[in-house]
Amino acid sequence: MVHRQKTIGSYIVDFNIAETKLVIELDGSQHYDEEGSHADQLRDAYLKNLGLTVLRIPNNEVNQNFRGVCEYIDILVKDRTK
Questions:
Q1: 35-58 pLDDT per residue, tens
Q2: Which of 45, 56, 60, 80 has a beta carbon 3.0–4.6 Å from 20's, enabling a disulfide?
Q3: How confident is the model over 64-79, as pLDDT tens digits?
Q4: Minimal CA–CA distance to 54: which of 40, 65, 67, 34?
Q5: Going from the N-terminus, what domains does the chain have, and what CATH number goes with each?
């Protein structure tokens, strides 16, 4: 089951697929400046320490290649549930 806007510790992740221990983050431009990048590194380290894998996808990739992004996520989820 996919949970949208799931709270994990003091963070809210965009999507969480608990069965596969996968967190999906859709990143806008604020994630690519120095402050945003540093905050993401801290967040990712926290989540990885919990045994979660963080997949970051830029918003522009979702907008330009929605189907490809969905197919990639589908393959990744299926591979993790084997």
A1: 888 999 999 999 999 999 999 999
A2: 80
A3: 999 999 999 999 999 9
A4: 40
A5: 2-80 (3.40.960.10)
CB 55 within 8 A of CB 37: no
> Within 10 A of 16 (CB to CB), how many other CB atoms are there?
22
Per-residue pLDDT band at 25 (split at 50, 70, 90): very high
The set of residues, in sequence order, having a beta carbon less than 8 Å from that of 56 and lying 6+ positions away, is 25, 27, 31, 40, 44
Rounded distance, CA 2 to CA 15, Å? 7
Q: What is the DSSP string of 47-81?
A: HHHTT-EEEEEEHHHHHH-HHHHHHHHHHHHHHHT
pTM score above 0.90: no
